[in-house]
Structures are given as C-alpha cells and as structure tokens.
C-alpha cells in the first residue's frame, strides 16, 4: 500500500488518507469507473478512465497521457509548435478529490477534474487548470481580489436517430416557449435531478432562442470550481440526453444561420467579503476597482476573442444585432455590448451585481477563458484604466465619430483576425506564458486552415458534433 512517506512526484498531501473512505463510498454507490477529465486548447474535453479500485494509484502516481493533446484540433488532427505537438514525453493526470462526484446521469461512473503534472513532479506549463489557479492567486496577491464566476451553457437538442452528420431538432415550438418545454419535459426533469444529485445548484433552465435550444444557468463559485462545474454540467447534459434517445450539440454554430450556442461568462470581483460591483461611487454602484477591471476587459477584448471564441464556427455566431456582444462596448443590461453590466434587483445588488462577458462560446476552454478575462481585468486595475462611455441600444446605430468617442470597435470577424489581435496583446500572452500562448496561436490557425474555403453550411456541419 502506498503511504504518504513515499516520494510521489505529484498529488497533494493528505489525499491518500482520503482514498479508502472514498473508494468504499463509491463502491457502495455502485460506481465502477472514474472519468478523469481535462479540456484541451481546442476546447474539447479529453478523458482517461480508471476502475474505482485504481483510485489510490491515480492519487499516488497519476495516470499517463501524452502532452501532444495540447495541439490537437477539434477533428483530432495535430499541429506542431516549437515546444509542443511531438510524439515525445508523458504527463501524469492527478484527480482533484475535492471535486470528485458520482455521476447521476451516468450510473456506474464518477467524475473528477485533473491537474497535469510532469513525470518529475512539476506543474505542466500547458495545464489550463493550473494557469487559471495561478491567475486567481496573482490577482489576490497584487490587488487583494477574490472572484465569483459562472458560465452559462446553451445547447441544441437533436433527434438521436437522425443521420450521424445531420441535426434534426428534437423539439418544436417558439423560443422560450411552453411547447418546447413540454415536449422535452421528461429529459429536462431528469437533468435537473441529476445535477441536484451531483451538488450543482441550478438557477434556471429554459428553452432558448435557436431551434431546439435550451440554456441552464448555475450558481457562482470561485473561478477554478466554476470552470470545473462547466465541464461537469456538459458531461451530464450529454449523458442524460443519450438515455432519452437524444443528441446534443454545444457547438457555437450548429446550424449555418441563427444565433448559435453561447457560453457567456459571469464574473464579479470581491475584496474582504464585499462585492466591488455594488455600493461604490461609480456608475451603477461600481467601485473604482470594478470600473478599472471592466475597462481592462474592454481594452483587451479583441485579443481575448482568440481564447473566448476559438473556433471558425464561432464567427458564424459573432454577428451584430444577435445579442452576441461583438463590440468593445459596455452598458447596463445591454445585451448587444461586449460586456453587460448586471446590477441585479434592488435589495440583492450587493450579492448579485456582476459583469457578463458576451463574446464567449462553449468551444472555449473554460479555464483559459476565465483566466484570460481575469488577467485582462487585472491589467485594467494595474494601469488604472478609465472606463469609456456607456452605450445604450444596438452599437450598429453609431456613426464612426460617435463610435470612436465611446471606444466602440467591432471585434475580429474571423479566427485568423482574432489571432492577429491576440499576438499583438503582450498582456494576454504574458499571462498565458510562452507554452500556452504558442499553443493557442497554433491551434487557432490550424483550425482555420482545416476549414478554409468551406461554405457556412459545411462549416457548421464540420464542428456540429465536436462540441
């Protein structure tokens, strides 16, 4: 039996002491296997799975997986960089026992996020989860900040028996309509039960705008836990759908036209237990720190799109006048702005006020997206950036002079254009570090090259079932 005195290259002190009780509990629940999950640069969740009896070995020594996955594309082809993409080397996946959960939507299985660590016991510089943790720690050290975050999840529900490459809506009825809710009520009721059993607090679940589209909003957590929760919720949505003979797509554009699936980020800054987006002397109760944080996000939003909208299909979705937030603009409850200031209802603003970052979809790696948004906002605080003027309505109505005065700029219209903005943003690249920044550029350009020349219909089909 492995003991804490063993020279383990990875893992956390004390975890091994927890394994016997955890293993016994999982066995009593009928759990036979554990999914070890992480998200690659392309935003695809990759997994290794182990029998429950192997949990102790995984905690002690990790589970092997090649670092080449950092340069996988969504279609599983591989690009190479100066430091990544070769067949050489190995990493170890270490499960985070604090977030291990039996999967109610997949009886017989449990799930845990992992940290990726080298064979020598060092944090892998390409580990997105480690990156986000570092960014959060840096903001705490430099600015005394903590964060609450949540990621909205939109998905389209298709008929499972449809041809493999097609999307046939599994529900009819209008957007937000009772018809659609009734038609898939058994599915969504089981989904709610599964999420509750897994400890996920759901704020709301409802039919959304696009054909057969639904959305679930979940409670806010610290950023790393919020990113973990986003991955877990999608795993559950997919698993429950399959049990009902359905198929789901989280792709940014599962059809060539329409609004597509978003993955908006909600984020609030806190200091000493106080929400900095409420009770201050700035606009709508924002403190000076919250305003500078918002200004930082706006300043870096063009480069951020290479991280938050990372697929060629993202740019089918990022269109004006579709609530996708394709302008460097902010406004109170303005859903066409790149950043929407959510004040919350009177009486709850000290708890609910937050920022919603709009040009984000679920092809994004949630750890990279949250980390880069926080890095951008933190840079705004460091630079004491002034908040530009607020917009109202649809930014397309502004003429060039008025738009320039308000700092309103159209975000990149293609993935290569977003990469150009990203490469020109030293703050984002420095935050990611050379390995992750290199992987982001290489994977994005690889995705663009893989679909070059495809018409929108073919482009949507290419990514429809990758996410």
Largest sheet: 6 strands, mixed
Rg on CA atoms, Å: 22 Å
Percentage of residues in helical conformation: 25-40%
The shape, in one word, is: globular
Annotation field: number of helices: 14
List unreliable stretches of 5+ residues. 1-7
Number of strands: 16
What string, H for helix and E for strand, traces the elements in order? HEEHEEEEHEEHHEEHEEEHHEEHEHHHHH
Kindly estimate the percentage of residues that lie in beta strands according to DSSP: 15-25%
Quaternary structure of the protein: single chain
End-to-end distance: 40 Å
Compute the average pLDDT. Answer: 94
By helix and strand content, what is the structural category? alpha+beta
Structure in words:
The strands form 3 sheets. Strands 1, 2, 3, 4, 5 and 6 form a 6-stranded mixed beta sheet that branches. Strands 7, 12, 13, 14, 15 and 16 form a 6-stranded mixed beta sheet that branches. A 4-stranded antiparallel beta sheet has the order 9-10-8-11. It has helices at 15-28, 55-61, 128-143, 178-183, 185-197, 223-243, 288-308, 314-317, 349-352, 366-382, 400-405, 415-423, 426-450, 456-463, and strands spanning 33-39, 45-51, 63-65, 91-95, 101-102, 109-118, 146-151, 153-159, 202-207, 213-218, 246-249, 265-271, 274-275, 330-332, 339-342, 354-357. It is globular, with a radius of gyration of 22 Å. It is of the alpha+beta class. A hairpin with a 5-residue loop joins strand 1 (33-39) and strand 2.
